[in-house]
Amino acid sequence: MELFLTVLSGIGWILVYEECIRIGIKQKTYAMPLFALGLNFSWEFLYSVVDIVYEAHGPLVGMNLVQEIVNIFWCCLDVVILYTYLKNGKKEWPGIIGAKYFIPWTLLVLVCSFALQIVFIVEFGFTMASQYSAFLQNVVMSILFIQLFVKRNGDFGQSLLLAVAKWIGTLAPTIFMGVINYNPVVLVCGIFCTVFDVIYIVLLFNERKKKRLTVR
To answer: What is the DSSP letter of 211?
Structure first.
């Protein structure tokens, strides 16, 4: 069951990242909100690349080898998503602030994201930090995707596949870590992720339905 849920989560999030890259390139925009991207990238970098470089014990502590491989793959995809944001994000940057602050703000968000991940590890230890930070940022991410829909007043730069894949990709580890292994923090965060993800799916579905009716 653990292996199945790990693979299911990995496939779900790979689809999310693939959609973010595809949409970003095709529509010349970015499909993942900056803070969500920063938290994801920092998590996956710290729990894959850094651990492999500095630890001699092999697979990640508290994670199976499959999860380690998935983390590395996610991290590589995050780099491409970050590229789409840096290339296209300035188009939606508030003019009142000034374009010269786009890069400094992006760097600040990345530094903040890495700092938060590191203090989680210091405070809770490697294994629990990886779970707590992952699910807390998933709640934030679910809210940010809804905010992106509202900000753009529609589904530009988003897709129903991305929304469904995100929901499944988070639901799988929620079942394993929150229900089977019973971690109340993971369980509560996972429940709210599902609530917000389903809201996001409904918003995108209704938007697609409205566009079809308009075409007719």
So the answer is: H
- DSSP-derived 3-state class of residue 183: coil
- Please tell me the predicted confidence (pLDDT) of residue 55: 55
* Spatial contact of 204 and 149, defined as CB atoms under 8 Å apart: yes
| Reported pTM | 0.90
153-157, 173-177, 208-212: least confidently modelled range: 208-212
CB 167 within 8 A of CB 197: yes
With CA atoms as reference, report the closest residue to 9 among 144, 140, 129, 186. 186
Residue-number span of the structural domain to which 114 is assigned: 2-215
pLDDT band at 205 (very low <50, low <70, confident <90, very high): very high
Q: What whole-number distance in Å separates Cα of residue 61 and Cα of residue 7?
A: 18
Angle at alpha carbon of residue 41, lines to 196 and 20, rounded to 5°? 60
Domains identified in the chain, total number = 1
**Residue 24 near residue 88, CB atoms below 8 Å:** yes
